[in-house]
Amino acid sequence: MANEKAAGAPGQAPASREAAHAAAAAIMGEAGNKPDHVANREAPSKDKKFVSMRTFDYNSKPLDRGQIFQFVGLGGDARLRDLKYVVELDANSTLYECPSCGAQFIQMGLRDGHAKSRHSNTRFVPPAPPIREPGETIHSYQNRLDEWAQAAGRMADSHDERRDKMENDIAPLDLSKTQASRS
Ligand SMILES: [Zn+2]
């Protein structure tokens, strides 16, 4: 009972019913001006750096996983961010630069993977073709060559499929955001 503070002081009950209403209106009004879904739809800043979480094309340029980039102000920018194609770069991150094109990456391994797939002529190296064995008939050799060619083709196809699947596993898109943006 002793040490009672004045009504309306911080942490104390408002002095009157009218004051309580005013306080509630002020709080609700403030919150009502900035609902979360509006904040999420703001276009991402063109000044901040982002990290690509997937392999995709942005502004007609290929981006690889882990690559640093900045938005240029396209219509779909907020969508890329909301879907988790990209996340904002932590300012303390160490960056690794590609010696061929200067692109920066958040991990050395991702930089090396980029360099290998973008800057070497052999994006995918199939196994060496079989060599005709001494005394082997041309038909037998042709069969083995056909089998090799088919297997190499499948491996090349599955190379891209594996990459897509791996990226889906480690950096899934947040598709719930597309539902929300339609409502
Ligand atoms: Zn490069």
Q: How do you describe this structure in short?
A:
The protein is built from 6 helices and 7 strands.
Order of strands side by side in the largest beta sheet? 4-1-5
Give the helix proportion (percent range).
40-55%
Shape: elongated
Number of helices: 6
Number of domains: 2
Mean pLDDT: 79
Instruction: State which percent range the strand residues make up.
Output: 5-15%
Hetero groups in this structure are:
zinc ion
Total beta-strand segments = 7
- Contiguous low-pLDDT stretches (5 residues minimum) are 1-9, 27-39
Walk me through the topology.
Elements: H1 17-33, H2 36-40, E1 50-52, E2 56-58, E3 61-63, E4 68-69, H3 77-82, E5 86-88, E6 96-97, E7 104-105, H4 108-119, H5 138-170, H6 176-182
The structure holds zinc ion (ZN).
Zinc ion binds next to helix 4.
Describe the structure.
This protein is mainly alpha-helical. The protein has 2 domains: 35-123, no CATH class; 126-175. Helices cover 44% and strands 10% of the residues. The chain has helices spanning 17-33, 36-40, 77-82, 108-119, 138-170, 176-182; strands spanning 50-52, 56-58, 61-63, 68-69, 86-88, 96-97, 104-105. The strands form 3 sheets. A 3-stranded antiparallel sheet has the order 4-1-5. The protein has a two-stranded antiparallel ribbon with strand order 2-3. The longest helix has 33 residues, at 138-170. The chain starts with 16 loop residues before the first helix and ends with a helix. The protein binds zinc ion.
Task: Quickly list its features.
single chain, 183 residues, mainly alpha, 2 domains, three-stranded antiparallel β-sheet, two-stranded antiparallel sheet, 6 helices, 10% strand, disordered N terminus, binds zinc ion
